[in-house]
Amino acid sequence: MYGGDTLIPGSFDYLAAHSINEAVALLDQHGEDAKVLAGGQSLIPLLRFRLASPAILIDINRIDGLDYLREMNGTLHIGALTRESELDNSSLIRERYPILFDTSAVVADPVVRNWATVGGNIAHADPANDHPATMLALGARIVAVGPAGERVIPIEEFFTDLPFETTLHPNELLTEIRVPAPVQGSGGAYVKLERKVGDYAIAGVAAYITLDTNGNVSYAGIGLTNVGQAPIKARNAEQALLGKPLNDAGIHQAADLAAAASQPISDTRGPAEYKRDMVRTLTVRALRKALARATGGE
Amino acid sequence: MSTHHISVTINGTSYEGDVDSRTLLVHWIRDTLRLTGTHIGCDTTSCGACTILVDGKTTKSCTMFAVQADGRQLMTVEGLEQNGKLHPLQEGFHEEHALQCGYCTPGMMMSGLALLQHNPSPTEHEIRVGISGNLCRCTGYVNIVKAIQYAAEKMQAAEEVPVSAGQGGE
Amino acid sequence: MATEVHAHGLGEAYKRKEDARFIRGQGNYVDDVQLPGMLYGDIVRSPYAHALIKNVDISEAMKVPGVLAVITGKDLDAAGLAWMPTLSADTEAVLALDRVHFQMQEVAFVVATSRYAAADGAAAVEVDYEPLQVVVDPKKALEPDAPLLRPDKKDKQPTNQIYHWETGEREATDADFAEAAANGVVVSQEMFIPRIHPAPIETCGCVADFHKATGKLTVWITSQAPHVVRTLFAIVAGLPEHRIRIISPDIGGGFGNKVPIYPGYVCAVVASITTGKPVKWIEDRTENLSSTGFGRDYHIKAEVAADKDGNVQALRVYTLADHGAFDAAAQPTKFPAGLFHICTGSYDFKNAFVEVDAVHTNKAPGGIAYRCSFRVTEASYLIERMMDSLAYKVGKDPAQLRLQNFIKPEAFPYRSALNWTYDSGEYEAALNLAMKNVDYEGLRREQAEKRSRGELMGIGISSFTEIVGAGPGKHFDIAGIQMFDSCEIRVHPTGKALARIGVQTQGQGHETTFAQIIAAELGMSPDDIDVEHGDTDTAPYGLGTYASRSTPVAGAATALAARKVRDKAKKIAAYLLEVGEEDLEWEPGRFFVKGTPGKGKTIQELAFAAYTNCPPYLEPGLEAVNYYDPPNLTYPFGSYICVVDIDRGTGEVHIRRFMAVDDCGTIINPMIVEGQIHGGLTQGLAPAMYEEISFDEDGNIRGGNFQDYLIPTSMETPHWETDKTVTPSPHHPIGAKGVGESPTVGAPQAIANAVVDALSHVGVRHIDIPIAPWKVWSILKEKGLTSD
Questions:
Q1: Is the Cβ–Cβ distance between A13 and A56 less than 8 Å?
Q2: Residue A50, in any domain of the structure
Q3: For residues A27 and A170, what is the distance between their CA atoms, to the nearest angstrom?
Q4: Which residues of C are catalytic?
Q5: pTM for this one?
Q6: C205 touching A (Cβ < 8 Å)
Q7: Residue range C205-252, pLDDT digits in tens
Q8: Please, what is the angle between helix B105-118 and helix B142-158, to 10°?
Q9: pLDDT in tens, A57-69
Q10: Beta-carbon contacts below 8 Å between A and C
């Protein structure tokens, strides 16, 4: 940035992988020298600002069959290369996974969404990205393929407490995200407060609940966007909801706990105190919306 | 730095060339191929002045390497006019005064095109969502919305197949 | 000067002639220019806001394949070009010599065979800096122990204060305030208008092409004022002016950002002269936001003295102006604070006094830009905020308070307390129309009802007076050049015309509107009149387009040049028809003999005759030129009403409705005027709610790219509603006043006033812009008004 016309990236070697195995083999070969190029909407800007300078770029966009949305046997399988715009346009997502529909709709802008991938949004592990909070709320699982084969990582074990860091090994490729299919009495919502379209969240809250036949909460997942060093799972808030009906008092109590779980910093989006209060407000709104969807109100 | 030989179809015409791995698609289109209708307005993938279609999808061409376009079908603003006939979007932008300095216009029209291909009868809100990745400083967007509505009506009336990448002409 | 308005051509929503190339992607912007053998320049910039330069090592950069040269401050110094004059009687560094004064300041210029090589070369230049204490607070810059930021001019200016400027009557104003304090009402408010940036979608750049063999320098450049650039290049660089050709081709937005001469331009010219090859320099967005001409950064204290009924008596204003490291503000030289003293606005103040202290800080240079009419945005903002404050103080509705204080129509031409002579105005009519259009009474009822239920709704008014069309040469000059403007028209034998003007569009539609002016005067079709500008080899001398001056000044020149053409055509008609001139009448396009309408000659026939059958006592041909020195500025005005609803949970402000009533005098093309208003309103919305450039205490910029500097998208921008009144300018040949900046001048305070209005019932009187959700929420929290 202190020297660079139209922000020209530094040098790197470009390799295109045409299969998962090829990609994994390349990652295994080059290790920390390599970075995966998926949508590129986060990575290429980093390269242009020379904030990242990998020696090797492994383009995985040529791998066939990595973009899909398949609901099978109680699980939604999302191929890692599924573009955000495919979620925008999917009636399956809109009707059965509105929390995901909420999420993809607020990722960057519609042009970026044609290339940005769900896998990339999660693997990049920017605490400001939107899908991590939603996946935490959903209790998703991440499928990673390495030289030794496939392993499944629960989402709570995927992010570390540092930004841009995951428990993926350097020679592993994120290939699929698995989301539990909705059961009777479940509903979720993602609410993002942003200064303008295309900005990162001032704060974002994903809430997913399931009510049992008695109307008590049997599952609660709450994820927070951009209010900490990493995506945050608001465990205390979740716990406080379990085993009780989801009423306004309960919603507010959970919201307070979610706010307490956040660790925002003050910046141009607002003081930390404001962001923490927004976590509270957005948790209330997300839970109310989740409840309405769970009870067929929306 | 690796170099790569690429073959790309743009507005129905084949182009070949050798590019460095880091050559941005927008620079290859503008500086090498001299298709200068696609513009550069920022460095953070924010403004959309560089928007083109890649395999039918709007793409910020500053955030893609030229080598990634190998084997793909691209469309730029130069491909809108077919056989001397303006596309309804171009007509609409002119009729509705949807451009002033003209710099965001090519990218804006490409986003409009993609929107109408997907949603032939968009509401004002849907249009505004559809162009929310393209910044304009001159027009305040009101007339751009009208221009896209104009094009939508014209295209519906003519029952034209919207122009897509790879359909004849230069 | 009589105001004649012709029906044909004026007032038509003629579709734009320039569209044809833009909708095909065939505009010719500077970065589209590619010349054989062209080289590329790239700039090495300082990461530090304030530091000594110990060493600049270019050796590694010179090893980068494709890099041909690296120009440093020392190299320029040898040619006397390390510093250059600004448009505000200061000097600024072209390339830093011994120290840097702001983050991203230019330190070296790399010349290479490709963009990419130039970037690699710039990344390889090694500079040793010794950081110095940084000053980003203008108040701190004035403290006695502040480091001296400009030791280069310490003999002339021993502190960081650049100037003190004042105007008005201090004693009479103070007396009015004393009286008001005793028997009337005084309202006072501090306001900070932060630094913002015009950010046109096309950044700045140039291609400099020097031909050794001919000694001719051609520069394609993003400039709103090509002739001024040519003259300044001649004076500063010592190049012969007749061998400099400046070409402003198509320009992707200017908004004042493309008036100054930037170091990159100078370096590109030097590089071209040195290498004998064309050199292209195009800045990226980060460079544009971080180093080129910004706007605002005014710390204002405003006070209004009024009687108990809210009739205004006096205005007192103190401003601390932060100009950054160099005072490079682009403005008429005799007005260091621009036209800020229009700040009595639309109201009949008896007395006023304004003081401005300007100061250096470690920030990018500049000061006047962003569609501001030379500080009129700041002036209008303060007075409209104060009128609302006064309204709340005396318990009157803000609309009523304005109506009672407006300068009355019969008072025009009106001499303000700060010595501006407003040409014409009908302020009441504009505000009444806006109020009627939004059902103002209904909105106030709705607000009261909502308030009783705890909902926060606000209505904001801005009844601004603009001052544009700089200006009379006696008072207005840019770098010494009087601010006239020009038009030259040549009618060809077959009745088509070519006109060249001294102003420079960046999207304002001059190729259409100026053709319409001529079309109206000559009764021709605008399609038969092509308008060119921007090439200093062919266009008559002009001062360029900014501060909404094109229509008031060049538009007048154009009408008058067309009338000269018509006058000559009349003489030819008299000759051909064998009558005296006094026996001829004119209807659009034709002279005919009075009483015998069938006996006439069309303008096309007369053009042909000018070349084929010219009266022996006249020169052949049919052309004319006019250089117009305006007798006064023009004063467009308007009333805007904004309705907002506030989300008590998040502090977000939703603009429900925005009604803009504008009066720009005679309207040349209503479609283009409306487009200007839409765009200007959007660039008024942006500073009101989104845009801000700020600095941390180390001088690191915040808002230096489009991720952080928030340009509104189609989603944030409301559906603007527009209406108009028409009050011609009595001194302008076609009564036109200009309109481009009225909306940026008028809009921000309409929005700010609306937000304050929504909270006025709990005692809120001011919120500094940009009104971000967190700011509103902080107030809600303080007042116990937050909710879910």
A1: yes
A2: yes
A3: 7
A4: 224, 371-372, 741
A5: 0.97
A6: no
A7: 999 999 999 999 999 999 999 999 999 999 988 899 999 999 999 999
A8: 50
A9: 999 999 999 999 9
A10: 95
